[in-house]
Amino acid sequence: MVIEAELKVDVHDRRTVLDGLSLRANGQASIYRDCYYETPRRELSRHGQELRLRTIDGSDVRHILTFKEAAVDDESGSKPEHETQIEDRGAVERTFLGLGYIVDIEFEKQCLNFRFSEHGRNFLATVVRVPEIGDASFLELETMVPSSDDVPAALDHIKQVIVSLGIDPMSALNPRYYQEMVTTFRSDRLMP
């Protein structure tokens, strides 16, 4: 089982964070177009699971299918993750709909990705904006671990990197999923 140990924090000083990450790696800009699927009875959400189809438009265009199991860590929401690249997004979309899944939510993220190694781990740091919800920036910092036993140590290393970027990971921690933030934003816009 592979687990994505990850923390997401609010970024108030985007320039400082980007400068700190640029010292570690070159950033790669991408647009993520995410579509989350659900059963009509919302069984995936009830079990803390996610089924996502993502198109990454960067130096090339890739389509990624991801299934995330329930979280193994309540603080971070770190989840076992199963991911594979697919050739034909349309075929997968039609398959999901044909099997009775519904589109739960779709949205776009503007991402700047930095890959680097530190503390004996490979990290992916992503500075994210979701244009639909405004100018807020977020930092996702993740590393893959082989078991839930390694999650606490991985999260400690993630926190150390976040601190080195000038962010207090505990006060800036943002446990909300993007799906939730977008849904709330859309609901607020509909209210009189």
What does this structure look like?
The protein is an alpha+beta fold. The protein has six helices and eight strands. It has helices at residues 14-22, 43-46, 89-98, 151-164, 169-172, 178-190, and strands at 3-11, 28-38, 50-57, 61-68, 79-86, 102-118, 121-129, 137-145. The protein has an eight-stranded antiparallel beta barrel, surrounded by four helices.
SSE topology:
Blueprint: E1 3-11, H1 14-22, E2 28-38, H2 43-46, E3 50-57, E4 61-68, E5 79-86, H3 89-98, E6 102-118, E7 121-129, E8 137-145, H4 151-164, H5 169-172, H6 178-190
Antiparallel strand pairs: 1-5, 1-8, 2-3, 2-6, 3-4, 4-5, 6-7, 7-8
Structural class: alpha+beta
Helix content: 25-40%
Total helix count? Answer: 6
Largest sheet: 8 strands, antiparallel, barrel
Q: What is the helix/strand order?
A: EHEHEEEHEEEHHH
How far the N terminus sits from the C terminus, by CA atoms, comes to 47 Å
Low-pLDDT regions: none
Strands ordered across the widest β-sheet:
1-5-4-3-2-6-7-8
Arithmetic mean pLDDT? 95
Counting DSSP E segments of at least 2 residues, the number of strands comes to 8
Q: How big is the Rg?
A: 17 Å
Q: How big a fraction of the residues is strand?
A: 35-45%
Overall geometry comes to globular
Tags for this entry?
192 residues, eight-stranded antiparallel barrel, 28% helix
What can be said about this structure in brief?
With 192 residues, the protein is α+β, with helices and mostly antiparallel strands. The protein has six helices and eight strands. Strand 3 (50-57) and strand 4 form a beta hairpin.
